[in-house]
Please model this.
Amino acid sequence: MKLIKITSIALLASSMLVGTGCVRKLNEFGDMNLNPGIVAEPITAALLTNALANISGEMWSTTSGLYSQLYAETQYTEASRYATQKADFSGYYSGVLYDCQNIINFNSNAETAPKATSYGSNANQIATARILKAWWYLRVTDAWGNVPYSKALKFDGIIPYDDQAAIYVDLFKELKEATAQFDAGAAFKGDILFNRNIAQWKKFANSLRVIMGVRLSKVDAAKGKAEVLDALANAAGVISTNAENAMLNFPGGNFNNPFYAYYNLTMRRDIALSATVTDFMNTNGDKRVFSYGVASSNPSVVKGFPYGLDRTAAVNWSNANTDWSRVISNSLRTATMPLPILTASQVALARAEAAQRGWTTESAATLYATGISLGWAQWGQNNAADLSAYMADADISLAGGAEISKIATQRWLAAFPDGQEAWNVYRSTGFPNLIAAPGTSVGIPRRFAIAQTQYDLNPSNTASVANLYTVGGIADSQYGRMWWDKQ
Model:
């Protein structure tokens, strides 16, 4: 379908994302000129801040959090009982991805690049934007599978979908090249994630490559192994201490932690911490449960909400158990609580999985223990005796076998509260052994279906991709498996 340039963006902007978090514009940054043929004079620092600030809504990704069973619905239970979620990815392209691309364009254009240097060196702005754009694209492809990529931000007519395998190859390239692109010039202003610390951006990119590489274990182990080894060999290193965690900070006021805004400001009560999480953690003495959730009337446990109940059963259970847990403890869930984006615990555990698979010569057992210890410390649980007892538990210790299952389960827990990353771990490894909502027959969804908007605006390309995910005669099925999600 032929679209003129300006119309392409207008159409992409016509609907915003539903299900994986809300991609929003910060009003104080004003409106952007949406004509991609004209490079005006955007404040690139503001574009960076906006693309980073929107991570807040992305992390409160309720639908993927329900699919990964970190969360449970307490009243309206359609999503956790797998009513089809036709989520629209348009908002990513017209919002955060366009912001990142505009930063790159403004710093690459010979006429505008000199003006951009008031916000940081051209190379450092481009490198930062490339890394952040890769992170955002990863979120999109890991939710839908094949999506528009190579032509998506050019807006020059028909917008094809790209194979997810090709997208992954290019994202690996972008992250590696961007890490090498930073120069000794001024760091990028507007950086609310790493406060202009270039070394941290490099560690973040390398760490993301490790996470992505391990995800390919079932579909392309050779590529996954090569990327993990290359990232670990990079002189910039990976995130390895909690001081290096990628944490989004909130000043409060107009920009609050999303969990605080949900529970404490809007007073919503329809999402709970899932009993899938709390049952495992309570049973095995994982003290992080008192940070992940709120202690019940019995202060020795956190009472998660049963996952996937129908509406009547959910309301009845809630009425009989008013002490069910909200997400994140009351003491931690403040307006200014930093939100974890990618942590040392996650990276260490991904390295443990790579080692266990024989991809590296590192010690899987050492990295596993390190990853769990880092996770406990990250959430303020520092009792050495409790941690020692936990590590000796039969369900936790690697000594009893089932190493990949145990490592993957810890990766699932360490992803908290990022529902999509927990869903990624489950889909790519098969662990933990999640049980589908009671009374459902097909199983846990593997992807999001594509919104009707895309069928209307880009019918031939969208229909072609939809056919790739046909299950039970239904095209674009949420049970269709994407490229890296194999049995």
User: Anything to note?
Assistant: The domain at 5-251 is CATH 1.25.40.390 (Serine Threonine Protein Phosphatase 5, Tetratricopeptide repeat).
